[in-house]
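Lecture 7 notes: from sequence to structure.
We start with the chain below.
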Amino acid sequence: DDIFITGPGGATNGFDASGTSSSILTYEENPSNGRGWKSISATSSSLSAGLGMLVFYRGDRSQTSSITDNSVAPNSQAIDFLGAINKGTLSAINLSYNSTGTPADDGWNYLGNPYPSEIDYNMIDKTANVSTSYYVFNPTTGNYVNRDPSLNEHIAIGQGFFVQVDDVGQTVTFEEDDKVSSNPTAYFKTQINPFTVKLHQDSIRFDVAWLKFNANASKQYVFNQDAIKFMNTRINLGFVTTDNKLTQRNTVPNLAANTTDTFALRVSSTVNGNYWLSFEEFATVNSLKNIFLIDLYNNNWINVRNTSTYAFNINNSIPATSGNRFQLIFTDVMSALPVKLLSFAAHRTSGVNLLKWEVVAEKNIQHYELQRSEDGKNFIGIALVKAKNSGEKTVYSYSDKLTRGTVYYRLHIVDLNRQDNEYSAIVTVNDDDSFEDKITFYPNPATDEITLQNKHNEAVGKVSLYDVTGKLVYENQFTETLVRIPTTTFEKGIYFLQNSMGFVTKLVIQ
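Predicted structure tokens for the same chain:
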């Protein structure tokens, strides 16, 4: 009597107006009955105490236009509950489980707090294969969010929530002892969480995932240790376990000293556009650990302790812009030489030997010394390059004089105290180190395909194609001496071909 309720059959079934589905829904787990939200058939329908329902709220009954217009902003309204108060122990609720082979889809049951009191989920009598955590709806973001009972949250009066089971024959039983005495709080409550990552669509809508540390945890998915990801209709974020399960709360072993741990992050959205990740709640992470976010699509790195947000784009026509696009790397900052050398390469170009190296996690590095050798054994220093110590991914380069024959290079990394040092692997350049000295290719410009042939009657080897932004768009390893690569699937423009030795030439596709 407080709000409008619509549904099939209209007034005949007790609804204020007719609709193809009801504004009151219950959840069906059994796929043979059509898994998902189901409309009630009439306002006289009964629901056992302890089961939940989803109610579409339009405001009070004074807003008559809200019956047909879903965009009407609802006003506040107190809803009264009539009838006998539930008290004592309620009958056990049988939970449904039907396996489809996809754990993220199976075993979801929607319950509701049956008492006129907040309750503690930890106290609810549950059989062994009922999840130890639960999921509530965040009306601000429009997502279901896993709640960790160890954080001492309570389920509000009248609140519905999902639990998951992973076997048949499971039950929950509500009892008086489940009740807690506390001041009423909002349906969606916040508190200090484990290490937190959020995927934002805008200033309001976001999804969230947590990384929790426990000495006895496993990196594989464990029911009731991890919380499987409840998939939303628009944006989704989760940690991927080592056995490829998507979780919203991933509980992993404690981070050990002098080690590096890597965790995969999966993002997705049904809407193309700009998004950003944010990082919060660092207190549970060892302060001696640097935390780096790697964007595998753009090959970007950030230290999230220094930069707590990262913007990116999702385009569903390019699969690599979503999915397992990101990695989080936890690594010690107090190691003997706190810098990670990602690459060190040399090649001959424009009359010089160009040396280039990429590093990340620089801390207290004095400089980089470039060394040259003619025999690969006896090296001399040729240049000192001062370290930037930015903590982010940094690219350095140096042009050495052109030499004939074969010349060897290595990189000497020196810290501020000059007590610790490290050497890179040795790289070489020689007179044959241009792309065209090894490979003949034609035509250029290309339209339908390009032909590549090794001049020395050897395998063409690895061929990579990059666009003008440096993005890798094609790569293949060839064992033939002559190969043809179709170009009709590439957009028109300028590209760069790279051979297995890392040397590059320009290609135009028309």
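Points to note: The longest helix spans residues 435-438. DSSP finds one helix and 38 strands in the chain.
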